[in-house]
Design brief:
Length: 389
């Protein structure tokens, strides 16, 4: 380790601000952080004697670094009495901010935090817990406050986001600030004013949680038998409520996740394929007529494919997996790619068969990902012939 390292001391001092420690100390009433001491590593007399010139240069560099040094006098057997720097001391926050060039940033933080706490005193604990929250959204606080004020005054507004009568706030702003708005609103609104059971903010989750209207989801499906066409059409999209009440003569339903697979899915008597597109059971759960048919889910051969299968089966216990087996994984392993570690599903899967669970664990361990559209349609037809000879 280097001795009398002024650069390391400066970085350590700056890190306190970047971690939010200085801001928290201010919010708590300036009670703990200053005077702030950052100690140097002190060399022994043996080190000083053996590397005297190097130590002397390090001391001179630290004295020239513009940091407020603290000195102490030491008595050595061979070197006698020596006055050496022992560390950096910032006596006050003002000194700390000035020397490290943080005055402008801190002044902006103070102004913003005062404005926020004047508007919403109950956020004091949140700002202490997340001191970088204000700086991370410094260009948006006025609009964030405006949205919060409106929803406090009009909880569960039952309007579309585009109808919000807030000056300077458009739907793009809310869409790009859903996470911080959710954080603020859960601290500001009474529990009865939002649905705490909704954990996902995307795909209409934010709107549903805070009582906004959303366009009804459309469910796209293909009838795979021309005899079952509706008004001559085989590729259709219906609002969720209409799909929930659909009357059809199909006997088999396939749910797939990828558009290419949906479009290429072969014709099959008395059958239908639904484009899941990630919504899985969330939008289909009210179509209880699907429980009366043979139901198949086909997803990617990777950790997420089996996670979605598990989730789907919790809603539709009669679901069979389709082309999600070891034989398929082995046969088309040359078409697989690596599933990035940060994107693998690491949660629990509750509704898999023993064979499915073993394959799920194997794929996750090997970072194996075989996208369903990579599997040749000829192979799909072979497997369909087993289901509908």
């Amino acid at each position: 380790m280097r001795y009398y390292d002024a650069d390391a001391a400066r970085k350590k001092a700056l890190s306190l601000y970047e971690r939010g420690a200085v801001q928290v100390d201010y919010l708590q009433g300036d009670t703990k952080l200053f005077p702030l001491y950052i100690r140097f590593k002190r060399p022994s007399e043996r080190v000083i004697r053996s590397d005297f010139e190097l130590i002397r240069k390090a001391i001179k560099a630290s004295e020239s670094a513009g940091l407020p040094l603290e000195y102490q006098t030491f008595r050595f057997a061979a070197l006698g009495q020596q006055r050496l720097p022992v560390g950096v001391v910032f006596e006050t926050r003002e000194t700390y901010l000035k020397i490290l060039g943080l005055e402008e940033r801190f002044d902006a933080f103070v102004a913003e935090s005062k404005a926020v706490l004047e508007a919403f005193p109950s956020l004091h604990f949140l700002l202490i817990k997340k001191p970088k929250l204000i700086e991370n959204h410094s260009d948006a606080w006025g609009r964030l406050v405006a949205v919060c004020r409106y929803l406090i005054a009009h909880p569960n507004p039952h309007i579309y986001l585009r109808e919000l009568p807030i000056e300077g706030v458009d739907t793009k702003f809310i869409a790009s600030h859903k996470k911080v708005l959710d954080l603020l609103l859960t601290h500001l609104l009474p529990a009865k004013s939002y649905d705490a059971t909704i954990a996902t903010l995307s795909n209409g989750g934010f709107e549903a949680k805070y009582g906004f209207l959303t366009p009804e989801p459309m469910i796209r499906f293909r009838l795979l038998d021309p005899a079952d066409a509706i008004a001559g059409q085989m590729d259709l999209s219906l609002p969720k409520s209409a799909f929930d009440r659909l009357t059809t003569q199909v006997e088999r339903i396939f749910v797939v996740e990828n558009l290419a697979t949906f479009l290429a899915f072969p014709h099959l008597p008395k059958s239908m394929v639904i484009f899941g597109s990630g919504y899985g059971a969330r939008y289909l759960k009210d179509a209880r007529w699907m429980t009366e048919q043979s139901l198949y889910y086909w997803g990617d051969l990777d950790s997420h494919g089996f996670a979605i299968l598990s989730q789907f089966r919790t809603v539709f216990p009669n679901t069979h997996s389709f082309i999600m087996d070891q034989h398929t994984a082995d046969r088309f392993a040359h078409l697989a790619v690596e599933e990035p570690k940060e994107k693998r599903y690491e949660g629990r899967v509750e509704s898999l068969s023993e064979a499915e669970r073993r394959l799920f664990e194997t794929l996750r361990h090997k970072a194996f990902r075989l996208e369903q559209e990579r599997i040749p349609i000829g192979y799909v037809q072979e497997r369909l012939c087993i289901i509908a000879p």
